[in-house]
# Entry
Amino acid sequence: MNTELVADSIPLIKLALSDEQCREARLSRDVRYDGLFFIAVKTTGIYCRSICPARAPLEKNVEYFQSAVIAANAGYRPCLRCRPDSAPGSPAWQGKNTTLHRAIHLIDDGALQQQSLAELAERLGISDRYLRMLFQQELGLSPTAYSHYQQCLFAKKLLHDTQLNITSIALASGFNSVRRFNDCFKKLFSLTPTQVRKNAIENKHAQAEDIVITLSYRPPYNWRYLQQFYAARIIEGLEWCDENSYGRTFSYDSVDGFHSAQGTGERISHSETPFDCIGEFTAFHIPEESVFSVRIQLSDLRYLNRVIRNIRRCLDLDADIEHIESRLKRALNTEVLAISGLRLPGVWSPFEAGIRAILGQQVSVQAARNLVTKVVGNNPINTNERCYFPLPQQLIGDEFSYLKMPGKRKETIRLFADYACDKPLDDSKALLAIAGIGPWTVHYLRMRGLSDPNIFLIGDLGIKKALVKMNEAFSPDAAAPWRSYLTLYLWSADLDSATVPIVNNSVITENGHV
# Structure
C-alpha cells in the first residue's frame, strides 16, 4: 500500500455519479464517461479507467473514486493496461471552495515546483496551515503529496508515450534530482521508472527533436466547428491549420520561468536564454480513437507539463459535454440541439486573447486578423518560418506606427501590456479600469484566454441577433455554469433551419463580435 499518500482518515468524497451509473458505464465501457470516475478493484489493489479492456470485476470487489489522486490516496496502484494517466482530465473542480480551486490549478501548473508551500499560501491570501486543512478535508492528503502524485502521473505518461530518457522525464515532471524522482515514483507506484519504460510501446513515429504524445477526450467533439473557428482567425507563421490538425508556436520568458529548488542527488542542468522557452505544437485529430496525437518541439523540458496542460485547455479536451449540453437544452427549452459537441476554442494566453480583443474592436474578423498579423510580424525573435506572439514587455514602448487605428486604441494596448507585465489577468474589475477596455473585451479575454466556462456575451452583436429568434422560454441563466457554451451555440447554430453554417466574418465591436 502507498505509504506516502495515505492519511490517518480518508474523508468521504461524494461522486457526481451514483454507484449504479458508474456500474453501467464501466460494464458498457462507454467512452463518454472516461476520466469522470475511476474503478478500484479490491482484490488486485489496482485502479482503472472506466473503459479498461480487462475483464470486468465483480461489483462486490469494486469501489469508485472521482479522481486518480483519491484512488491512490486509498492505497491503489494505477493499471498498466488502461493507463489512468492517459484519461481525459475531469472538468474544473466542482467544490464550493474557490480558494481550493485556485490552489489545485496553481499546483497543477507547477506552483510547488517553483516555490514553497508558505509562498503559495501567501499568494492565495491564506496561511499554509489553512491550505493544508483544505486539502485534507477535501482530498485527504497534503498539498505536497497531491503535487508529487500529479508529477509522477505525468512522468508515467511520458514513460509510456515518448522516447525521452529518464533524466529528461524527471526534468519535465518538475524534479531537479533524478534520485528524488526515482524514490518518489517507486513509493507511489511500487515500480521504478525503468520498469514502467520496459512495458511501454516504443513510439516509432517521433522525430529525434520531437515529443509525440496522445491526448484523449470524451466524445462528442465537434472538430469541424473548432477547426473553422481557428481557420477564420489564423495568423500565418504563428498558427497553421488544415482539415485534420491545428498547430501554433509559443514562448515563455524569465517572468514565467521556474525558480531554482533545493534538492539532493544528481543535479539536472539547463541553459538560460533571454526567452526561457520557445516551442511549437501540432495536434492531429483522430476521431475514431477520440484522441489527438500531438507533436511538440520545446527548447526547455521544464515547461512540458505546462505546455501540455495548455494544449488541453485550448482544445477544450476535458469538457464533460453531455452534462454541459443538458444545461443548454434546459436554457433553450428544447429536447434536441441544432449542433452538438461544441468546444471552447482557447487562445494560448490571456494576454494574447486581450490583445486580439482590443485589436478587434469595431472592425471585421478579417481586419482584426490583419492587425494581429502586423503586431506578431514585428516580434524580433521571429524566424523565416515561424512567428511568436510578443510578450507584454515587448509592447510597452511600441509606437505601433505600422497599425492604422486610432491613437487611443494604441495607448490601450500599451496600458494593457504594462498591466500584464506584473499582474495576473484574472481580475475583471482591475482590467475594466484600464482606459479603452470595456465589458465585452474582458469577457472575451476570460472566455478564450482563461477558458472561463460561464461567460454569456449578452452585449455581443451576434448574440443580439440570435436572441431575436428566441422564444419567451429562453433562459440563459439555466445554462450556468456553462454559459460560454451557450454563447458558442448561439454564434454557430442557424436557429431557423437548425443547421450549422460556416464560421463567418461578421463585424466586431466593443459590444459585438461573432
The mean pLDDT is 85. DSSP finds 21 helices and eleven strands in the chain. The domain at 347-437 is CATH 1.10.340.30 (Endonuclease III; domain 1).
